[in-house]
């Protein structure tokens, strides 16, 4: 249990990551066998393996071992990875 009153508990074997991406930047992420991910731009828009997502549009990523995130404009993204689903 977190002692930080501003943190929230998700009660899951998961990672939560965030990133600020400048327009045109590309980053790659790898999932372990059995993992799944949910990616949502908090602002801006991105392309994940060629599939676009705008602000607050989420993408479920469950059958890709590796995926590539490209910022179509300046973007802030949140990525949640669940372990061994």
Helix content: under 10%
Q: How many structural domains does the protein architecture include?
A: 1
Number of strands: 8
CATH topology: Jelly Rolls
Helix and strand content put the structural class at mainly beta
Shape: globular
Mean pLDDT across the residues is: 89
Q: Spans with pLDDT under 50 lasting ≥5 residues?
A: none
The number of helices is: 0
Strand content: over 45%
Biggest pleated sheet: 4 strands, antiparallel
Question: Strands of the biggest beta sheet: in what spatial order?
Answer: 1-8-3-6
CATH superfamily: Jelly Rolls
What is the rounded distance between the termini? Answer: 23 Å
As a whole number of angstroms, the C-alpha radius of gyration is: 13 Å
């Amino acid at each position: 249990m977190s002692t930080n009153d501003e943190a929230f508990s998700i009660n899951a074997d998961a990672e939560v990551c965030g990133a600020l991406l400048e327009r045109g930047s590309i980053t790659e992420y790898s999932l372990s066998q059995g993992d799944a991910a949910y990616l949502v731009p908090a602002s801006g828009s991105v392309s994940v393996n060629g599939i676009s997502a705008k602000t607050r549009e989420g993408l479920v990523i469950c059958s890709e071992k590796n995926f590539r995130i490209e910022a179509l404009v300046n973007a802030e993204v949140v990525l949640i990875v669940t372990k061994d689903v």
